[in-house]
Amino acid sequence: MTNKGKLIIIEAGDGSGKATQARALYEHLAADGCRVHRIEFPDYASDSSALVRMYLDGKFGEHADDVNAYAASTFFAVDRYASYRVKWKKYYEAGDLILADRYTTSNMVHQAVKLTDQSERENFLDWLWDFEFEKLGLPVPDLVIFLDMEPAISDRLITRRGREEGQTRDIHERDRKYLYRCHEAYEQLTAKYHWQRIVCSAYGEPRTVEDIHKDVYNIVCRKLDLKVRMK
Fold this sequence. Notes:
Structural class: alpha/beta
Distance between the termini: 37 Å
Helix content: 40-55%
Radius of gyration: 17 Å
Number of helices: 8
Low-confidence stretches: none
CATH architecture: 3-Layer(aba) Sandwich
CATH topology: Rossmann fold
Mean pLDDT: 91
Strand order of the largest sheet: 2-3-1-4-5
Strand content: 5-15%
CATH superfamily: P-loop containing nucleotide triphosphate hydrolases
CATH class: Alpha Beta
Number of strands: 7
């Protein structure tokens, strides 16, 4: 019988610094001597993300609501399944720590907001949990950290990133109302699933990367029963 590892998710709306915080946490835990592996979703480097890329590029419709929650969820779920089976299942089953930038938790938010009726939304969440964690056999996260950035600030940061890096917004990022709806869903699901929430902005400005990282690191150390070693 194998000793399963731990799966920790960094979750947040677009433009909230997920990748930065996931990278900082990975580097800190690796320096502590943890056997840790970092993954991110969608896995754009893999063929398994083809339908995800088509969806986000607007090939199936210019608005997120043009593709229903169940169909869009399958695109992302298949990408996760391929990543798990090919890239990190062996490490997880060997007892290592897996650190993910987004996961099924993103489907819970970004697709559930398409369903305005609360009973329909709850049915979708039940279906998604069964589909990914039971039918596909993906691991259930041990810890989900929600980086709570005010959506107006996230939108501003997305715009700045686009100018600096020449990136175009995907169909989620282009829809400001959608970003605000997702933030509301993040707050609701954080309470429903007992995710850990970190406030990442105040008085109209983001907190520093270093301060947010300290909060993230401390939460993870408590969860894993590790000795805190701040840099």
